Amino acid sequence: MVFKIKEHRNIFVDSRAGTQNNHKSQIHLPTQSFNCQGDELMRITLNSFSMRRNFYKINSTNNTFYGVDVANSSTLYEVKITEGDYNHFDDLAAAIETALVATFAGTPTCVYDEQTRAFTFDMGGAASNWDSTDGYFTSFLDKNSSDTEKFNDAHEILGGKPEEDATKTSGFVNMFGTTGDDHVSIFPAQLDTIADLYLTTNLQTNNFETHGFRRGTTGENTITNSQKFARIPIERDLAIFDTSNYCPTLHDIIKFEDSNDLYSIYLQNKQLTQILFDIEDEKGRPIPRVSTGQFAAGNLHYKMVLKWEVLEHPDKVVGRPAGDLEGKYKGAINN
Questions:
Q1: What is the pLDDT, as a whole number, of residue 170?
Q2: Closest C-alpha among 82, 125, 282, 258 to residue 199
Q3: Which of 55, 77, 273, 293 is spaced 20 to 30 A from 175 at the CA atom?
Q4: Which residues contact 99 (CB under 8 A, 6 or more apart)?
Q5: Please, what is the Cα angle at 284 between 279 and 287, to 5 degrees?
């Protein structure tokens, strides 16, 4: 169904200009400029988005895993990779080795195999906190945990399986499936885990999402209402890569341009006075900050162009109630 566009405006947004609430930005709009009447309908569309990639590829959401000391009541020993950008797998392997030494002392090692895209851990040189007979590694991805270290994507970086229940005290999922001193990635290792950003809003989006996106969700085979407005892919330039480890380069600026109205919200209210925006990763977590105060300082800000429109239904049927969203605008809202 084709709707008549009665009125439209572009809204140029800099998230730093809004009222800041931690990592959220609230934009206030003049009521007299953004409203509709009768059976008219307002629509908000994301036309463009840009943001500097001022966060690390290895960060608090993917840098923590654990050694399991089976001989000592399955005690967990935290291994934390130093946050930063590692543009080569060899550099990341060196950082993992440094983290292993910090936890287990001695001379444990980590190397990367370019052919298999796998890390190999040799724990034979570990001096403490390691069970050379039955020890193994685990990484937690528990949607019910509020602990960043227990809702973590380290298994993706390391090429292993996650443990989804952080309440366990033993019998954790073995990330690599091996015990003792030698451990090898069972899946291809990764240099980062954030492939997309998601723009969310407090507006009623009429969108849905699967339960895999957010912590605290259950019912894996169903979908739920979503506040996600748009998906912003983080592109990698495959034409420009480092010949060492064949690492594609991440763009410094994350950008999205759309001329096809891919992401639109049809509003059921008649006035628009404020919009709350936030940026999340694919699991509903805030963008991992590099240091305290980064959000407040505007160092993780983004810019957008929103298109605001007032739509008129082409067929004004006499006797039909104004604002009949289940009738006149059902097709628009569900599309």
A1: 96
A2: 282
A3: 55
A4: 79, 80, 81, 82
A5: 45
Closest CA to 233 of 251, 207, 247, 248: 251
Return d(Cα 280, Cα 230) in angstroms, integer: 11
Distances (CA, A) of 252 to 70, 236, 237, 324: 44, 10, 11, 46
Domains of the chain: 4-54+198-334 (2.60.120), 64-184 (no CATH)
Q: Is the pTM of this model over 0.90?
A: no
The pLDDT score that the predictor gives to residue 251 is 58
Among 132, 142, 113, CA closest to 178: 132
How far is the C-alpha of 295 from the C-alpha of 289, rounded, in Å?
7
Rounded to whole angstroms, the Cα distance separating 119 from 188 reads 9
Q: What is the pLDDT of residue 63?
A: 98
Please give the Cα distance from 31 to 235 (Å, whole number).
Answer: 37
Residues of the chain with pLDDT under 50: 238-241, 243, 245-246, 317-330, 333-335
